[in-house]
Write a structure and sequence with these properties.
- By secondary structure, the protein is an alpha/beta fold.
- 41% of the residues lie in helices and 18% in strands.
- A hairpin with a 2-residue loop joins strand 2 and strand 3.
- The structure holds 4'-deoxy-4'-aminopyridoxal-5'-phosphate (PMP).
């Protein structure tokens, strides 16, 4: 027996996959040509599988800010804020996010994953309950696992099921924290947040919304689903990431509760990891300004999303429940997904392939995502590639 023997089933699965889908484990973006194109296997390939919703990764303001910060402050902070010190930029970004969300406090983390880990593992204790949507991201599940609260899942986007569970809890537990996402990353659908916020109020629970995929995408000012639904006042904690619409890396949590600050002293994912680099802080601050100043990006993104969703649906693909920047194509069995994914790549289009058990309903998915940086011609080209490969799945 070696330490690696337990991976045998994985090795077999990888071999089977490679036989059917030779490129899957060998995708390298050899050169990044633009926010929407990369050189893959020496060939310019259209990217329809990023989370670059606003297309800001090459925005001149973001690049200039990152370069200037690197020159002035160096390439990295080399440690955590608790042990090695906070840079002025960290505080400025926290202040700017608080202003953007109209909240009193914000803490910035080194990734969105860590933001969820920090909030969920630290905020709740063994007398508390976390009620989470079953389709929540792995970082939310992992945060729950790291903490000591009782964790109860409710059926995805099922308000009646959530209410049933709230009712059953009665007064048994001290605090109940409901956790949902703005836009779900796999199927691209939105939480019924108005109804969830009403239940939160009715049952005296707390509400955390992970706006990772909805920041910059939903709401008149791009603040996410809570803004779009007019329920920001009911959301106790907004969580998000800098790695999608803001085109960098990092995460945050904003709140009106003064107690949020205790996470700085109590949360291991804040204390025991290095803080964001000056370049990342600076480009994220610039991206936040661009998000506010260039709302046309959101409009463009939605035009692309509606166009591709309608086209795929008309072709007979089984798409997710609603149009949005994440468009899931249900591919059925993994073998069908492998064929379609490889077929699209051969057509010069890269999408994400998601296999069970990571998918919400046990089937394989091809996940397409759009960017404001796509041109209409590129969106048409993605649709054309899907049309050309329609015969590959039943
Ligand atoms: N929450 C959700 C809903 C996500 O989809 C993701 C990333 N896919 C994260 C959190 C983690 O974000 P990050 O990449 O910043 O760690």
């Amino acid at each position: 027996m070696t330490l690696f023997d337990k991976f045998h089933p994985l090795a077999v699965a990888r071999e089977e996959m490679t036989a059917q889908c030779p490129d899957f484990f060998h995708i390298t973006m050899e050169e990044i040509l633009s926010p929407t194109e990369a050189l893959i296997k020496g060939r310019p390939t259209l990217l329809a599988g990023t989370n670059n919703y606003l297309g800001l990764t090459f925005h001149p303001d973001c690049i200039a800010a990152a370069c200037e910060a690197t020159e002035k402050e160096g390439t990295g902070t080399t440690g955590s804020r608790m042990a090695n010190g906070t840079y002025a930029g960290h505080l400025a970004l926290e202040q700017e996010l608080s202003t953007f969300f109209g909240r009193k406090r914000t803490i910035v983390f080194s990734t969105g994953y860590l933001a969820n880990l920090a909030l969920l593992s630290t905020l709740t204790g063994q007398d508390d309950v976390i009620l989470l949507d079953a389709d929540c991201h792995a970082s939310i599940y992992d945060g729950c696992r790291m903490g000591s609260a009782e964790v109860i899942r409710f059926r995805h986007n099922d308000v009646a099921d959530l209410e049933k569970r709230l009712r059953r809890l009665g007064g048994r537990k001290a605090n109940v924290l409901i956790v949902v996402e703005g836009i779900y990353s796999m199927l691209g659908d939105q939480a019924p947040l108005k109804e969830i916020a009403a239940l939160k109020q009715q049952y005296g629970a707390w509400l955390a919304v992970d706006e990772a995929h909805s920041l910059g995408v939903l709401g008149e000012h791009g603040r996410g689903l809570a803004e779009a639904c007019g329920v920001e006042g009911e959301v106790d904690f907004v969580i998000g990431t800098f790695s999608k619409s803001l085109g960098a890396i990092g995460g945050f949590c904003s709140s009106n509760h003064d107690g949020l600050d205790f996470l700085r002293y109590a949360s291991r994912p804040y204390i025991f990891t290095a803080s964001l680099s000056p370049a990342t802080i600076a480009s994220t601050r610039a991206a936040l300004r661009v998000l506010a100043a260039e709302p046309f990006r959101r409009t463009l993104l939605w035009q692309h999303a509606r166009l591709l969703y309608a086209k795929l649906k008309a072709m007979g693909y089984k798409v997710g429940p609603e149009a949005g920047p994440v468009i899931a194509v249900r591919a059925g069995k993994p073998a069908d997904a492998f064929r379609l994914w490889q077929g699209l790549l051969d057509q010069g289009v890269y999408v994400n392939m998601v296999l069970p058990p990571a998918t919400p309903d046990g089937g394989a998915l091809l996940r397409c995502s759009l960017s404001a940086a796509h041109s209409t011609e590129q969106v048409e080209a993605i649709a054309t590639a899907f049309a050309a490969r329609k015969g590959l799945i039943p």
